[in-house]
Structure of STAS domain-containing protein:
Amino acid sequence: MISSKFTDNTLEVTLSVDALDASNATEIKTAFQGLSLEGRERAVVDIAQVNFIDSSGIGALLSFYKQVNQKLTLRQPTPTVLSVLELLRLHRILEIEPE
């Protein structure tokens, strides 16, 4: 569901779920809480496999954003997820790395 690794200055997290929603957001939020930057400059969450996100999923991502001191990048959101992020204007506070 969630895997992580460190590169030079980045904590890289991959979400391997089709949907980030009420059915799994609490579990993912708990997994995020177990992660730490450990001196790295930023965190990158690869959400390329996430095809659907709801308010619970957004809440889990924003919780992680606060946890890593606003140093969060979302990598490769699908067009559907990107449209939700843009609708909520989250692309203005979260860095987005397109495909």
The mean pLDDT is 95. The chain has three helices and seven strands.
